[in-house]
Structure formats: C-alpha cells, structure tokens
Amino acid sequence: xxxxxxxxxxxxxxxxxxxxxxxxxxxxxxxxxxxxxxxxxxxxxxxxxxxxxxxxxxxxxxxxxxxxxxxxxxxxxxxxxxxxxxxxxxxxxxxxxxxxxxxxxxxxxxxxxxxxxxxxxxxxxxxxxxxxxxxxxxxxxxxxxxxxxxxxxxxxxxxxxxxxxxxxxxxxxxxxxxxxxxxxxxxxxxx
Length: 191
What we know:
The protein is low in regular secondary structure.
C-alpha cells in the first residue's frame, strides 16, 4: 500500500532521461493527466524520433472485448504516407454534420454489397446526387449479372425504380441518347 510520489513546485520541471530502455509498469491502472488550463498548459506530447518501423504503438487487444476509447472535441489525424484502418466492421457517424471523402486521385470502393440510403429513419426528404464536373468526365455503371443467377428465371441485372406514386418522374436529359439491347426492349405505361 506504499506510494512513490515525484513532485515539483509550480516553477520547476520533472525530467526523466535514459540512454537505454525505460519501462513504466503497473498491475493496476496508469493515469497520465494534466490540470493546467492556461495558454501554455495542459498539453500532453508523445514524440518518437524513430525513422523506420513502429515509431509509436498503442496495444489494447488482449481480447476482442478490449476497448481503445478516444474522446476529443476535435480529432485531427495526419499521415505523411498511407493510413490504414483494419477491423471486422467500421462505423462512421457524422450525426447531422457533413461527411466529406476527398481525394485528387482515384477513390476505389470494393465490397460484396453496397447499400446507400438517404435520410434513413427520418421524415425529411433526401437526395442522392452523382456529378462529374469535368468537361471530359463520364459516369459509367456496369454489371456482369446473368439471367437465372441465384435460381431466378427472369432476374434483373440493373434496375431504376422511381414509382412511389403516379406523380413520380424519372427524367433523362441527353445531347444524344443511345440505347442498345442484345434481346428485346419493352416500354410499358398505364397512362
């Protein structure tokens, strides 16, 4: 039950140096906290000068229930090279704020299934907008689905549904509209 306390006065610093390995170990909890709230107070810095390999490691995976919890007013993560996030599932929630994914290169999304909803579980109206602004830009949708896949005899490869009511409008505006089919083409209207 004994304690070891290292303290300094308000004007003094505490510095620990070592030319070899330095280990801080506890059978219970380790708490690192600052209490200052001034302009030059309250900051915690962890710095490594290692140039290759793992510079800073945070290990909290003793079991699948082990949690690493980061709470911040603003969270800013910068990487000068690649950034990788691996998990069995990933959830990103921006609440009512804006979620931006920005790149000047290629955005590549690979998935078994992709499902996008707007305004899920709300009464508000949502829009889904795909825009290619460049004068040489193009938007392409391609599916390799084959009829009869998964046991269906007349399965649909690509479908656009916008018939919530008789006033729902599907608008196609084009300079030139070119539609090609390898089999029959059918347009059905009740009006």
